[in-house]
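Anyone opening a protein record will find just a pair of labelled lines. With that in mind, the following record should read easily:
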Amino acid sequence: MRTEMRTEMRIPKRTFDAVIVGGGGAGLRAALQLAEANLKVALISKVFPTRSHTVSAQGGITAALANVSDDNWHWHMYDTVKGSDYLGDQDAIEYLCRNAASAVYELEHMGLPFSRLEGGKNAGKIYQRPFGGQSQNYGGEQAIRTCAAADRTGHALLHTLYQRNIAARTQFFDEFFALDLIRDADGYVLGVTALEIETGQPWAFESRATLLATGGACRVFRHSTNAHINTGDGLGMALRAGLPLEDMEFWQFHPTGIPEVGSLISEGVRGEGGFLENKDGEKFMSRYAPNARDLASRDVVARAIAQELRAGRGCGPRGDYVHLKIEHLGAEKIKARLPGIRELSMQFAGADPITDPIPVTPTAHYMMGGIPSNMHGQVVAPIHTGPEEAVPGLYAVGECACVSVHGANRLGGNSLLDLVVFGRAAGMHMIDYLRENPIPRPLPQAEVEKSLGRLARWDKPKGTETVAGLRGDMQKVMQDHCGVYRTEALLKEGLAKLDQVEARLPDAALSDHSRMFNTARLEALELENLMPIARATLVSALARTESRGAHTREDHPQRDDDQWLRHTLYFSENDQLDYKPVKLKPLTVETFQPKERTY
């Protein structure tokens, strides 16, 4: 496709049927659906697609295949609703769990190299392992439901989808940083502006349908399992376009991150038979989750570890971690089923899990909130307390989106499933949308100019603040004031400190003003995305006066369904909050009524 130049535009423009922002599992799955329908698809990614954060997903993708134990999708749905602490929308959860098996078999047929079962009547079928919060018969015995490719499932999924997109002729724009949505006066999203990292040249990508698949934003915290690229770029774009973010108070702290480093030790380790111990050699999870123990849901296990540390039963000279033990599994099983985990542990924790326990501590891992979307991937939003409706031409999928299937807490193995099920659903809906809207709308030059002005702001010669300093201060505020446990006083103090950090942002300047591969400029643009996300989190968390899932208020320790069985919507203008009800009615089955959540 040739580059087009209009006389009124100061930057080069490319025109496509659809533009996908983000080269992880969600973006690649949606792009594949579109490209195989012979549409012109551009996929923009700030890193090479196979370096997207999906590559780090270790444990597996959950689907009720019943290859190891009796299972069905309705049990999976129950576990997901319960895991969400009843904040998940049950229509979307039914869609997710009903389509899980077909999504996994589709990936298998694409060539994803799943591990295989050995021996028995199911020999050769996809290997499945136990994962936290998964049960048989609506809370009964542990289910064995999570399909795995050793402990590198995300890596295998990402490469499989990338190869299929190459075959389908998706056009990749690697190392392009998306800046802003282009939205006209009628609310239609008509593409994005983006910065070519190699040259420093801004571009306009025009399209009739735009999908955001930019991943999470856990780099808003100081300690995180996330890659440094997870800076919530899609969320920042949505906020600047006047759209809200949903349920931003809910951040999952994975129980088992390597201290200080943050690298994730997969839940699959406990699924294979690993267990947690405190400094006294006590398997303490039986105290907090007597039935599920080490395979309780992640928020339960994270709080349990935090309480052990508070009680002085932590390991190490500072008592700031517990031990995860798997040496009893034997060297052969560890090498076969958990090779990547062993490598991570040896490299970053200095412990060979064949002989030594792995030090672990809760670490920011996943964002349950995000850009409000529906089962078709359409972004849906009330515009300043008006009625909720789809934003024409705009879609969001994956961790950057809030469908909401994860509610207040995500179950392990459901994130990769979320990517492929809703990535496919969004692709199918975009095809229909493009057929119904064949004529491109005029691209508003003023919106492009606004984006270029924001980019040019970082060309000012001098300033008293550095991007690295501001980012570090923001991350410390979030780590100290919005972690596993929260109180009103702690959140208010954090918000006041964030105000001070934000007030310093206009005085920030770059020391490097070169164009080619200017990573300092990228970090500045990422900070402009992270800062409002931090604010959305603190404001939303302060308002929710209950404990639910990953949002634990010590001053409000009980869940309050009468007042808070609803989703939060945060608008950046004046920190405005709005709310909408949780969708308790599934598509075809009976509602799972909220009840006490125990493991």
User: Anything to note?
Assistant: Residues 258-362 form a domain with the Flavocytochrome C3; Chain A, domain 1 fold (CATH 3.90.700.10). Confidence is low (pLDDT under 50) at residues 1-7.
